[in-house]
Amino acid sequence: VVDFLARQDCLVSAADVADGLRAAGLHPSLATIYRALDTLHHFGLVRRIDASEGIARYEPIDPSGAHHDHLLCEDCGQLLPFHDTDLELALATLAERLGCEVTVHEVLLRGRCSRCCAVASGAKIGEHQALTGTDAGSKTET
Amino acid sequence: MSISNRTEWAEHARLVLGQAGHKQGRARNAMIDLLAGQQCALTALEIEDRLRGEEQRIGRASIYRILELLGERGLINRLELGDGSARYELVDPGGEHHHHLVCDSCGRLVPFDDPDLERSIDRLSRRLGFRMHDHEVVLHGDCTTCQT
């Protein structure tokens, strides 16, 4: 589990860990994987995020302090990592204002990714064209 | 959230559930009143503890069922703050919200809101072409009491 997590750039679920280990010819049970993940979490070695779809995901905590936050697209289910200097600055100023020593922060944005926004607006144009009988090709080019 | 907003939330919650065909029940009413009176998020066990004063005991299964129902209807948010316990808090019908600092020393949950942070998140979301529905910010560290 440790070797698998060390190769990950972003969040993975226990099922993803199981798939990854299976590909490497290992077959630990999900219970064993959860136990290992819990232990790593307990010692502050992995971050655990529940994006509210009932699935906990884990990623390694970089000892250098480098980190990223996440966008969850509720349409395609993809978790996308991001890093934003402006947001980091706002969080540092906030911690100072609260008078708290912040060691870790987690920011999760939920919504629709740019790709799904494009697909949704494309679908809407398509639906509209089907209803009005306009030409699909010429309409999307305008 | 202000007291008037919390009262409004309780009325709104009853109306939404009533319109969805859910009959009013003692347990559900007690939970709506309890959640409406909270300043911040509670775990299911904390809810169970606080409902212990009720004449008839409200079982843990009922509590989870009602939390699920309120969540499905968008009346409460489920928060996972990294300590393995889900917490629940009401969603303000007016869109007002706060975020949380979890004190890793005493476990206390400190609510906060910050307009600069909200503006940063809006800018970021636009920059990424992301259509944001909601967001969560959780800070971990030491609260002011534990630092002294």
Structural description of this entry:
The complex is a heterodimer of chains A (142) and B (148). Chain A is an alpha+beta fold and 142 residues long. Chain A is 47% helix and 23% strand. Chain A contains six helices and six strands; from the N terminus they run H-E-H-H-E-E-E-E-H-E-H-H. In chain A, a hairpin with a 5-residue loop joins strand 4 and strand 5. Chain A is flat and about 45 Å long. Chain B is an alpha+beta fold. Chain B has six helices and six strands, in the order H-H-E-H-H-E-E-E-E-H-E-H. In chain B, the strands form two sheets. In chain B, strands 1-3-2 form a three-stranded antiparallel beta sheet. In chain B, helix 3 packs across helix 4. The mean pLDDT of chain B is 88. The interface between A and B is large, with 37 and 39 residues. Strand 6 of chain A pairs antiparallel with strand 6 of chain B.
Largest interface, per-chain counts? A-B, 37 and 39 residues
Strand content of chain B: 15-25%
Number of helices of chain A: 6
Mean pLDDT of chain A: 83
Compressed to H and E, one letter per element, the order of chain A equals: HEHHEEEEHEHH
Main β sheet profile of chain B: 3 strands, antiparallel
Order of helices and strands of chain B: HHEHHEEEEHEH
Number of strands of chain B: 6
Number of strands of chain A: 6
**Helix share bin of chain B:** 40-55%
Helical residue percent of chain A? 40-55%
